[in-house]
Model the fold of this input.
Amino acid sequence: MVAVEESGLGGASSTAARLRALLPAFERNPRLTVAAAMMGSILFTWAPFLQTPDVLYRYWDGPHYVYLAKTLYDVPASHPFTPYNLTPAYYATHFPAYPLLIRLLSPLTLGHYLPAMLLATVVSSVLAAILFYEVLSRFGLVVSPLWTAILFAFIPPRWVIYHSVGASEPLFLVFVFAAFLAYRGNRTGLLIASVALASLTRIMGLLLVPAFMAAALLDRRYRQAALLPLAGLGVVALFSWHLLLYGDFLAYFARNLEQSGHLARVPLLALRSYAAAGNTHDAEFYLGFYALYGAGTLALFRQRAVFLYLLAFFGFNAFVFHFDLSRMFLPMAPFALLAGFDGVLSKPACRAALPFLIWLDCVYAWGLIPQNTVVPSVYEALVRALS
Done:
């Protein structure tokens, strides 16, 4: 039997063993490994812009968040973004958790808010990767939590951009993953706090309330289900603050309903509109997104809490009417894409394709980042306002 192994007939298993032997430190330190993968992805994305970091600083919506970190929402009528015809009330759409993190970290960058913005993103992204690994491990979602958590640094490409520039998505996912870990441990207080903080990062965090309430009810945690609505009090307090700042309790929604914003009253309006106009390219793009994320959601049907989370976000995205649908789906991506399609992504062929995937990410990010920035004159005005 040993001779057969040594003769090469058992070559596949022996090769795998040798490969594992090359990476003992990675296997012994999975959290460090996924953190390193995330940092590597960020550095790859930054590489062409290290000599011109203003390209990263100017990427939307980072400049808005960093300005709010400096002003704490005390935005005058004449501000750096007035050329875009943005009134102070526009900033009701930017929730405070990420700007506050930027401000909190600014002493580490000697009071310079623009580098603090990227530092806030890096810290959030690395922490999100570690927490995602913990969620995968404790819920038993995939064959290899380590491999899937590494993929989290590179899939989907839209996420590669937003975990490398000024954006609230990484911090939002930190609180989402923290909420899942709290739910797994039946820690109601931590669950409510995590959901509240997610809601103060992006308004979609409110979707966690019905998702976890439904999961708690099905798991017969009736007290937990009854207490979860308390997580929404943070947004109530925020909207009350909007009333004081802008004279409108519902200022957030002024830019986010019907034709003025991102939400519609009928589902799949973007798909319907493009299809009715004969725009096959965009119609098929939206159809593909809904089909891909829908399939990933259904694949996790037996994972009750995760499935209900995905169902809530998929239902919300059905009413999103916005060109940047790929960004709206990012909160679903770690579960629907990575865990939902683990049967494919964990195959040896897919693992071997990781370098090619990284190259594709770089092509995508390096080409797109310079195309979605504030104009130089606005950026210069922002720099003056921050000084």
Observations:
- Residues 118 and 166 are 6 Å apart (CA to CA).
- Residues 1-12 have pLDDT under 50 and may be disordered.
- The two ends are 73 Å apart (CA to CA).
